[in-house]
Each structure stands twice: as structure tokens, then as C-alpha cells.
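Researcher: Next entry in the queue.
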Amino acid sequence: MGLVKSIRLFIILSILAVSGCSSFSSGPEKATIKFSAGTNINPDEDQRSSPLVINVLFLADSRQFEREDFINLFDNPGSRLGADLIKKIRIKELIPGEKRTEVFDLTEPVKYIGLVAEFSQYHRAKTLMLIPIDDGSNEFSVSIDELKLTSPNEYKRKDD
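Model: Structure for this entry, 160 residues:
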């Protein structure tokens, strides 16, 4: 009788341990970004507004992203970011005046979200943004106005 109770106790503790591990994840599972595009976004040479494509990069570290420019991250983010790039998603283009919420699944090593906006006049635009992921509420807002991305959640380097 003692052996049967011990086996039952072992099985119950094993099940609790396995299910408990999955409920105590070390980071957030989702990130939400609320995009708000102005009516004047992505102007062409004649100042006509145009839709804007944004690439979302899920990063393990921010250092290499901060060193790169738009062209490098647009052309081949995988070779430029190496192991820091966990995943890349190209979201459906934002049209002028659109407000949209995008929800992204996060995996364990993701510590930052990098945004790469494909402005037609990229040489004049603020095309890159870095947003840190933390263990709190990962709901972010990003505004797009003319040729720039802005967010109160944007990562600011100490030397900025």
C-alpha cells in the first residue's frame, strides 16, 4: 500500500511540475502595437501621401540594430543582424489616415522590436525605431507622420 501511494504522489507531483513550468514563463507572450498613420504619411516627390510598409524585426539584442542604417536593414536584415534577428514580419501596408492594431507572438529570446519603415524618401526620413520588451504590459503606440516614426515607448540611448 505504501508503494502505491508513493507512485501516485510521484505522478501527481510530476504532472504539477510540468504544468507549473509552462505557466511560469519568464517573459511576455504577446506584444501589441497600435499604429496611427497621419493623412500626410510617406509623401512622394510631389508631396502626395502614399501607403507605407513596415517590417517588424524581433531581436535578442539591440546593439547591431543600432549600428545599421536603413539600406542595410532593408536589403538583408538577416546577414546584418545575425543571431540577434529572431524573426521578421512584413505587415500589410498602412494607408494614410489608418489606425490599426497588430498583435505579435513573442518567443523567449526576444528583448526588442525593431521597426523598419519603407518611406519612399528614405534618405530624408526617420525610418528606424527600437522598442524594448519588458515583463510588463507590452502594448505600444507608434505614430507615423510625414517622414517619421514616433513613439513614447521608443528606446533612447543614454547618449541621445
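Model: The two ends are 70 Å apart (CA to CA).
Researcher: Noted, moving on.
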